[in-house]
Write a structure and sequence with these properties.
about 500 residues, alpha/beta, 7-stranded mixed beta sheet, two-stranded antiparallel ribbon, 11 strands, about 45% helix
């Protein structure tokens, strides 16, 4: 081959080498970004976000990535291009072997970078664990269809408020949290003056187990007693034609008992398949951002944060609650209205017009604002005639993934736990209060506990992988410990895959 042919071949080889090196560099930047932005994010969640429906993804998430990483990616691209030009001077007329060795060396570099990045974000351990079979779910799962669940003679309404990323950790150290100052005083007072389950004698919360650390996973965990286990599930999450079709959930049980059910959120319900989960389990009516536009509640070009701000969502929710209460008065049909907030989502949250500037950090101000707003909503509910027959549950969906905030303000003085508060629960036997504190439990236990709070009696006090905390029955966390549970959830479960998701693959 002549020198001219060698030159063109080596140009192509050098270009390929540059692409390979940049791919490796990109994986390192992505790994750095995940560690920087998302505290303790599991590889399960990364996989779910890749394959699950992305309708309604907040533009801020993508803008944050590009704003944070563009400079690093551009610098890397310029450096690689400069190195390629410099290196070309030495190999342009060399034999093909020079270009091949350059490409091969670049491939090795890329592989090393990718393997390192995948190891750092947990992909390697995730894959290794997924090859280990586990019978933990099968041995500990209580199918709600196989136990007697009895409704009370007078059915209570349910208003369930999922608060994005809300942790008991956001309380002051004096109140049982891990902050130097109280960020959520109203939420603390609500939990203190009502029913709160905690690991300690103070106001606390539950552990977010593996498979329950992002929004749809947290919501499903609390309403089905089951985590979302991608390590064990071989389904096509990008389509989600059926969402956990083999599970019996809170929505299913309430639907069978004549409840009207609705979920109200300010984001797009299609994101992560939330519309499928709630639509298929309990026939929930869904009022989300897209429905708000369709019903002309907001202009077609209105969009902040994930859709609409929480203050506007609460306003719409009040109307829906009043309509549900009016219908209940006429028909005797109880209602379950579930809400999902969004302003406290990472990164830094959304600072609305109601937020004050009490603190020197935006996320602190957003958390404080969220605490005031939900407290105002609770006060409004308590002023309504229907409240006498209503139980309110307030719960975080998971702990926050705002890594910047956690790194700056969380000192580890208290374990990070998901907030919970039950207002006016049905149990009237004061002995249940002996079961509130010094408990080890996860958000999976919220499923049977919520039914119990509505006055349902549950044979054996267990549903899914959850335990009715009012009963005082030993939870799986108290029996096995958090670490054992999380390890088992990271392994392959044939039972989970075939029992709960089988029809997804058929």
């Amino acid at each position: 081959m002549n020198s001219k042919s060698n030159k063109y071949f080596n140009i192509i080889s050098l270009f390929a080498a540059g692409v390979l090196v940049f791919a490796g560099y990109f994986s390192l930047v992505l790994c750095w970004y995940i560690h920087r932005q998302y505290n303790g994010v599991s590889f399960d969640e990364i996989m779910f976000q890749i394959f699950a429906p992305k309708d309604g993804t907040a533009g801020e998430v993508f803008r944050e990535f590009f704003a944070t990483c563009t400079a690093a990616l551009a610098a890397g691209l310029i450096a690689i291009a400069a190195a390629a030009v410099f290196f070309f001077r030495f190999i342009k007329n060399k034999r093909k072997r020079a270009g091949l060795l350059t490409t091969a060396g670049s491939f090795v570099i890329m592989c090393g970078c990718v393997i390192f990045a995948f190891t750092e974000v947990g992909a390697v351990s995730w894959y290794r664990n997924s090859k280990v079979d586990s019978e933990y779910v099968e041995n500990n799962y209580t199918d709600p269809a196989d136990v007697t669940i009895k409704a009370p003679e007078k059915k209570r309404n349910l208003i369930y408020i999922f608060m994005e990323s809300m942790e008991s950790t956001f309380q002051s150290k004096e109140d049982g949290g891990a902050m130097d100052e109280e960020l959520i005083p109203e939420l603390h007072e609500l939990a203190l003056n009502n029913v709160n389950f905690s690991e300690t004698e103070n106001v606390g919360g539950g552990h977010a187990s593996s498979g329950a650390t992002w929004t749809i996973a947290g919501m499903a965990a609390q309403t089905s007693g089951l985590p979302l286990l991608l390590s064990t599930n071989r389904t096509k999450y990008g389509y989600l034609d059926r969402f956990m079709p083999g599970a019996t959930t809170l929505g299913d049980i309430l639907h069978e008992n004549g409840y009207y059910q609705e979920i109200v959120m300010g984001s797009n319900a299609a994101f992560e398949g939330r519309d499928k989960y709630f639509g298929q389990h309990g026939d929930y009516q869904i009022l989300d951002y897209t429905k708000d536009i369709e019903l002309h509640k907001i202009p077609t070009d209105y969009h902040v944060w994930w859709g609409i701000e929480d203050s506007l969502m609460y306003s719409f929710a009040k109307t829906e609650i009043l309509n549900a209460a009016e219908n209940a008065e006429k028909t005797g049909e109880p209602f379950n209205v579930t809400l999902l907030t969004a302003d406290t989502h990472q990164t830094d949250g959304y600072k609305c017009s109601l937020c004050r500037n009490k603190f020197d950090d935006q996320y602190k101000n957003v958390l404080a604002c969220a605490s005031r707003q939900v407290s105002d909503l609770v006060s409004w509910i308590q002023d309504q005639e229907f409240f006498k027959d209503t139980t309110i549950v307030i719960a975080g969906d998971h702990t926050t993934m705002d890594n910047k905030f956690i790194l700056n303000y969380y000192d580890g003085s208290a374990p990070r736990r998901v907030y919970n508060c039950f207002i006016d629960p049905a149990p009237d036997n004061v002995s249940y209060r002996d079961n509130l504190k010094n408990r080890r439990f996860t958000t999976l236990d919220m499923f049977p506990t919520t039914l119990s709070a509505l006055g349902f009696t549950i044979e054996g006090n267990r549903l899914g992988l959850g335990t009715d905390l009012f009963s005082g029955e030993e939870t799986l966390s108290e029996k096995y410990g958090y670490r054992r549970q999380d390890e088992e959830f990271g392994r392959h479960s044939k039972f989970y895959n075939e029992k709960l998701w089988a029809s997804q693959d058929q």
